[in-house]
Amino acid sequence: MRQIIDISGQRFGSLTAMRKVARPRNAKTKRSYWECVCDCGNTYIAYVSDLRRGETHHCGCARGNAAAQTFKEMTAAERQVYISAIGDEVTRRIFTLRYIDGLNWHQVAWRTGGNTADSVRMIHNRYLRRNPSTAVAEGR
C-alpha cells in the first residue's frame, strides 16, 4: 500500500495545500485529493500528483492571464492602436468585439459566426502567447 504524503502547508504556485479530503463520488481514479486555498481566496480541490508535478498551480483565477488584464487597463485609444496592428482578420475581430465593444465570450462567439466561446477564447489566448513583445506585455 502506498504511503500518504502530507503536503499540508506547502505552496504550489498560488495554491497552499490545507488538508487531504475524501475522494469525490464521481472520481474515476483513486488519486489523493487535497483542499487548497488560492492567493485570491478561493478554495480548490486538486490531485496531489498534479500539484507536485506543477500541472495545477492556481484555482482558475489566473486564466484571464496578465496580458488580458493589462488590456483592461489600457485606454480606448491604446486598445484601438494595438488591435489595428493584428494581422489576422478573425483575431482582430475577436479582440475588437471583446475589448472595444465589451462583449462577453459567448457574444463574441455568436458574432464571429458559429464559433464556440471556448474556441474564440483559445484564438485570443494563442495570439497573446505568440505575441508577448507587443504593447500588452510592456504593461501599458
Q: What's the rounded overall pLDDT mean?
A: 79
Biggest β-sheet: count, sense, barrel? 4 strands, antiparallel
Strand-pairing-aware structural class? alpha+beta
Task: State the separation between the terminal residues, measured CA to CA.
Answer: 54 Å
Can you write the helix and strand succession as a string?
Answer: EEEEHHHHHH
Coarse morphology: elongated
Task: Describe it.
This protein has helices at 48-53, 66-73, 76-84, 89-100, 105-111, 117-130; strands at residues 11-12, 15-21, 33-38, 43-47. It is an alpha+beta fold and 140 residues long. It has two domains: 11-62, no CATH class; 64-130, Arc Repressor Mutant, subunit A. A hairpin with a 2-residue loop joins strand 1 and strand 2 (15-21). Helix 3 packs antiparallel against helix 4 (89-100) and helix 5 crosses helix 6.
Task: Please describe the topology of this protein.
Elements: E1 11-12, E2 15-21, E3 33-38, E4 43-47, H1 48-53, H2 66-73, H3 76-84, H4 89-100, H5 105-111, H6 117-130
Give a quick rundown of the structure.
The chain is of the alpha+beta class. The chain is 40% helix and 14% strand.
